[in-house]
Amino acid sequence: MSVRRVTEELQRLGMSGYEAKAYVALVGAGEAVNGYEVAKRSGVPRSTVYETLGKLVGRGAAFEVRAADGTGYVPLPPATLLERMRRDFDRTLGILQNEIPRLTAPPQVRLVHSLTERRMLLERAEDVAAAARSELYVLGWPEDVEALKPTIRRAEEHGVDVATVVFGADDDPVGWHTEHRYSAPSMVEDNLGRRMLLVVADRDQAVIGGLTADRTWGLYTDDPAAVLLAHLYVRHDIAMHRVADRFAEHGFDEFWVDDPALRRLREPVGEPVRAVDGAPRSVGPETDDQGADIEDLGDDEDGRSRAG
Predict the structure, then answer these.
(1) Cα–Cα dist 160/233, whole Å
(2) Would you kindly state where each structural domain of the chain is located, as residue ranges?
(3) CATH of 112-281, one of 3.90.550.10, 3.30.70.100, 3.30.870.10, 3.20.20.140
(4) Contact (Cβ atoms closer than 8 angstroms) between residue 200 and residue 234
(5) What sequence ranges are listed for the domain Transcription regulator TrmB C-terminal (predicted)?
(6) Under a CB-based contact definition with an 8 Å cutoff, are residues 166 and 179 in contact?
(7) Of 82, 140, 188, 244, which residue is most buried, by most CB within 10 angstroms?
């Protein structure tokens, strides 16, 4: 890790920029050094270096030592400093967890807010996953679910009932895992014009989003109606694939492709879904001018019949 990265992280834990630079300089010196040497090693201005060192001493991150040639400074060992910071941070979190709920008024309105960047979408999805206490449902493409796995695994370790639906192969699945096959992930993405991501915790809050290579849309909500719809959507997908597995040897693939009612559900209805670039996309199999299906409903690579 670079010196710059270390100083940035120390600032995140409460040190000022000058304090972080001075502390890193003390650690790197390996011996007691005076203020002039700290300024030279750290880039802290000489006019403020002793004030900065005094603040480090005040917070217990450094100590003054007396020598024949004047006052020097040594750092609190990094392992000890980090453990002290961890204790202080945990103590502060414990106080806030107890006190903030007492100040919180009952919500008068339900929250819905937009998420317009992939980073924002995934961070909010992590928030929802981390908040789960009894059940967590996650649906998405492998590259997006992968970013959430550390948080999902922690939820599972804490006893949360986790179910995941992944549009594609996942070599390291988490929770009660379902690989989405009906319809094929590539066909779903083509019809929608984007990848989907749903994260639902405790039927209480949800993140719903869509992603392309360069665009993201999405929302967070604790509105019961929207959360329930997202919750049921994921459960329906799981149930659908359980039925498919159960009746795989009884012609399910052929039924999926040939059944008139299912074919009707795959036909375009209403306005087409529009891609983020504004170009219209069909929500079902594309047709030529005579209405004949252009989309191939043949077998995919693993021999499973594909259907839109």
Answers:
(1) 19
(2) 3-79, 112-281
(3) 3.30.870.10
(4) yes
(5) 117-209
(6) yes
(7) 140
Residues in the chain: 308
Q: Which fold has domain 3-79?
A: Arc Repressor Mutant, subunit A (1.10.10)
Let me know if 269 is exposed, middle or buried by CB neighbors in 10 A (0-12, 13-18, 19+). Answer: exposed
